[in-house]
Backbone:
């Protein structure tokens, strides 16, 4: 593996960091999609942190580094001597990233062609200086086989919104704060604010909240990109306990990172219970996936959300009712959830020209 050395002493505008482990095929596809995009933006650093992969990942990275260097594309590769775990690898990416802005991208997700061109104008002003943007939410669409054939666009024809209210931004992003590939953070500003080191969240499977929520707490101005520049691969879920991570751990991290601000944390938790969990649970049950123990999930979620009526009204039926009835019921509650979501965000649904 080539030595890990930055290609320039000047701080990049943006670091795209890819934590990877034993996903050589997916990583190669992501690098291939990024390569022509990065050629147009020399102020973007690409960092790959290999978590001691045992497949052909090192060979793919060595070839990519040689190819990228020929085009002047900054690519930094770090390889851990042993597998340090997903959380610690995410934190390693954060600490090693030199960019003023930081974008952690899953190795099985894709920044689609044209996606970087949608992002970059919002990270710098007309003079080329870093923009005063705290967070940028890059919306996404799910795909299973071919990201191009399955590509989706915003149904309302929106391009982007600038948001100055932290509460509004929390309502728009909601549970997607936990999706690593969808949030770009102003690392330079975060470094100037009081905040815990991300290592404090190791073991929660949600360390990514350590660099986004402090900026939400001290929010000035953020951007929502509606054009779906990210394609999120479906069916590659990690083997963690869904109930525990999105119950005890998520609620605990929100209380820790957004102290005294239920107006910011409640939209995240309530949307998860109304819409995200029912959808995930029905997908798991329909696929016959036994990796999620439904009884264990109910126990973990009830312990955290048993006093929240949304758990019993929206999540529990998808978890425990007979599958045909749960599907029918959840279709109705999904429509209700959508109406609730739109009612709380008036003015966000008009087509932009």
Residues:
């Amino acid at each position: 593996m080539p030595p890990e050395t930055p290609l320039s002493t000047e701080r990049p505008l943006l670091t795209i960091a890819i934590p990877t482990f034993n996903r050589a095929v997916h990583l190669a596809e992501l690098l291939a999609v990024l390569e022509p995009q990065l050629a147009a933006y020399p102020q973007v650093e690409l960092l790959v942190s290999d978590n001691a992969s045992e497949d052909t990942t090192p060979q793919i990275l060595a070839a990519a580094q040689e190819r990228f260097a020929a085009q002047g594309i900054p690519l930094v590769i770090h390889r851990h001597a042993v597998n340090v775990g997903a959380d610690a690898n995410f934190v390693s990416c954060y600490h090693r990233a030199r960019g003023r802005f930081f974008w952690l991208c899953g190795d099985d997700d894709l920044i689609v062609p044209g996606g970087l061109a949608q992002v970059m104008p919002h990270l710098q002003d007309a003079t080329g200086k870093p923009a005063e943007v705290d967070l940028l939410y890059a919306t996404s669409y799910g795909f299973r086989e071919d990201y191009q054939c399955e590509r989706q666009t915003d149904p309302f024809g929106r391009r982007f919104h600038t948001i100055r209210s932290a509460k509004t931004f929390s309502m728009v992003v909601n549970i997607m704060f936990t999706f690593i590939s969808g949030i770009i953070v102003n690392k330079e500003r975060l470094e100037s604010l009081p905040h815990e080191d991300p290592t404090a969240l190791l073991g929660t499977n949600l360390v990514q909240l350590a660099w986004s929520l402090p900026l939400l707490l001290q929010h000035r101005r953020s951007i929502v990109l509606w054009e779906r520049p990210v394609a999120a691969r479906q069916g590659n879920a990690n083997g963690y306990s869904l109930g525990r991570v999105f119950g005890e751990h998520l609620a605990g991290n929100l209380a820790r990172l957004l102290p005294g601000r239920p107006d910011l944390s409640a939209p995240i938790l309530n949307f998860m219970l109304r819409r995200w969990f029912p959808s995930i649970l029905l997908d798991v049950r329909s696929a016959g996936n036994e990796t999620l123990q439904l009884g264990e999930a109910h126990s973990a979620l009830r312990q955290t959300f048993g006093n929240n009526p949304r758990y019993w009204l929206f999540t529990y039926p998808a978890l425990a009712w007979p599958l045909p009835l749960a599907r029918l019921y959840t279709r109705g509650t999904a429509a209700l959830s959508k109406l609730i979501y739109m009612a709380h965000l008036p003015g966000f649904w008009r087509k932009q020209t």
Summary: The CA atoms of residues 105 and 181 lie 4 Å apart. The mean pLDDT is 93. Residues 262-286 form the longest helix (25 residues). The longest strand covers residues 222-233.
